[in-house]
Amino acid sequence: MQYLIEIVSPHLPILPLLLPLMAGMLVLLVANKGITWQRTISLVATLGLFVMAIASFTFSLEGSIQIYALGNWQAPFGIVMVLDQLSALMLVLVALLAVTALWFAIRQNIDSQGAHFHPLFQVQLFGLNGAFLTGDLFNLFVFFEVLLLASYGLLLHGGGRHKTKAGLHYVVLNLIGSTLFLFAVGTLYGILGTLNIADMGQRITQLATEDQGVVAVAGLMLLLVFGLKAAMFPLYLWLPHAYSHTTAPVAALFAIMTKVGLYAIIRVHGTLFGEQAGELAGIHTPWVLGLGLITLIMAAMGALAAKFLRQQIAYLVLASVATLLIASALPGVESLAALLFYLIHSTFIAAGFFLLAYFILQGRGQKTDQLVRAYSMPNAILIGSFFVFAAVAISGLPPLSGFFGKLLILSSALEHPLFFGILAVVLISGLLMIIALAKSGSQIFYHILKKEADHSIRHCNTHDGTCQLSLAGIGSVVILFSISVWLVVFAHPTHKTLNSVAQQTLDRTQYQQQVLNFTPIANSRKELVE
User: Fold this and answer.
1) Mapping DSSP to helix (H, G, I), strand (E, B) and coil, where does residue 82 land?
2) What is the pTM (predicted TM-score) of this model?
3) Quick one: 458 exposed, middle or buried, by C-beta within 10 A (0-12, 13-18, 19+)?
4) pLDDT band per the 50, 70, 90 thresholds, residue 528
5) Of 231, 243, 221, 224, nearest to 162 (Cα)?
6) SS3 letters for 159-207?
7) Region 55-82: what's the mean pLDDT?
């Protein structure tokens, strides 16, 4: 076992990329053998990815940052993958989310509703993991494109007019974002002469005064791109349509997509425009804070005005992203640790809520997930109990993890000059979300129609006049919701671990030294070629 660990551990930064990529190719090769083969390979690979992510996070907690030089070329001349505590934590989130979403898709036969679900699912994981592991800005662009290409296909899985319309908005906006990303990357390369994130951070400290304006514009252009990925105001309108019209497991997996934009802001802007950047230090934070506050208000109002439950959940995802954006604009280790705590909570609760909405949609016949009165659904007490749990957690009420996450963020903002403004927006938006969820819950579970008054009953395929509701895959909901309980029960050790992650992330000097001083493996053949 020790021998196996010694062989595998040096390759941990690259294995989370290779496994889903190879699994996706293998699934395509066995596509003609039927869906069972595809499911088996995809599920085994995703479970393997989860084990690998746990191992990566465990190794990262030892303190050192692990570098993997592709082609054995030293940074900044070669491409490097960087495994630190933050990227390893994101790998764990992706892997656990993927396992539960995939299991739900298989148990509910959603994966068989269209072609190529499993290859696209694996390519999506490849793109997500690549975005979290790359130490190079251009490769961040490449992995963004990979995960977006896969997400286009997953978004449209199963077909339908609404999915196509939502997908079109999603594609057009992201193509504009990709173009701006290339402009920003080209501008930064022209001034700094490098695209390695660690090297860019160092070169900005030595930047000539006349070049600072150009770099600031390119940095804000990058913020616009990452803001689009994170659904920051005014670039958020794609999210409610896209998330509410796609299938439940895809929406659950997409709960991590907005966090990619947030991660990019923390990693790229944090390294390039950190405290060491002189005049350019923190140029992005006032924008992130202001737009995050506006996004939170718009998300709460959207949740209140939503006509469908899945649309309401999508706005709640937007609200959680806005809260994270606000936290990312606050300085210090405490605020970043609070951000990570809330990020774990909000990602899993939102994903579980999307899966739960599928059961509600199934059980209400023709009324689907419309927020109107309908006939009582089968297993209403069980589904209603899950709904109450999700509503309490996602709106940030005690005693669940959403409350602790928001409390930690507000505590870290105490010294901020805009503290009372932040406090007011967070509290008022939270109140609006509670009202919205209370209204939805009462319409779905309490103010139900009498049996003879509901004309949608005849559309349900049952013998006794009730709709069918398959609880297959509900284990995924249980696992995702139980993370919230786990965060409360183990709040102290979790917060301590997240403090360690935040400390390492904010130590930009250590990151730059480890990446740029990494020595590739000695290779006599390579020297001969040189």
Assistant:
1) strand
2) 0.93
3) exposed
4) very low
5) 243
6) CCHHHHHHHHHHHHHHHHHHHHHHHHHHHHHHHHCCCEHHHHHHHHHCC
7) 87
pLDDT at 456 over 70: no
Q: Is residue 400 a contact partner of residue 391, using CB atoms and an 8 Å limit?
A: no
Strand partners, 136: 196
**Of the candidates 317, 374, 325, which has an alpha carbon nearest to the alpha carbon of residue 350?**
317
pLDDT for residue 466? 56
Q: With H, G, I as helix, E, B as strand and everything else as coil, classify residue 521.
A: coil
Do residues 314 and 243 lie in contact, with contact meaning Cβ atoms separated by under 8 Å?
yes
C-alpha torsion sign, points 284, 289, 293, 296: positive
| Spatial separation of the C-alpha atoms in residues 203 and 55, rounded to whole Å | 34
In contact, 454 and 374? CB cutoff 8 Å: yes
pLDDT, residue 484, reads: 93
Name the residue among 211, 102, 79 with its Cα closest to residue 157. Answer: 102
Rounded Cα distance between 89 and 53, Å, is: 8
Residue 385, Cβ neighbours under 10 Å: how many?
A: 12
Which pair of structure tokens corresponds to residue 285? 């934070």
Q: Give the tens place of pLDDT for each residue, 96-131.
A: 999 999 999 999 999 888 888 999 999 999 999 999
Upper half-sphere CA count for residue 151 (Cβ side, 13 Å) = 28
- Which DSSP state fits 66? E
Q: Which residue do the tokens 């395929």 mark?
A: 461
Compute the distance between CA of residue 176 and CA of residue 217 in angstroms, rounded to an integer: 17
Confidence grade of residue 527 (pLDDT, cut at 50, 70, 90): low
Cis ω for the linkage preceding 10 (within 30 of 0):
no
Residue 525 pLDDT grade (very low, low, confident, very high; cuts 50, 70, 90): low
Which residues partner with 67 through β-bridges? 82
Residue 34 pLDDT = 87
How far apart CA 320 and CA 330 sit, in angstroms, is 16
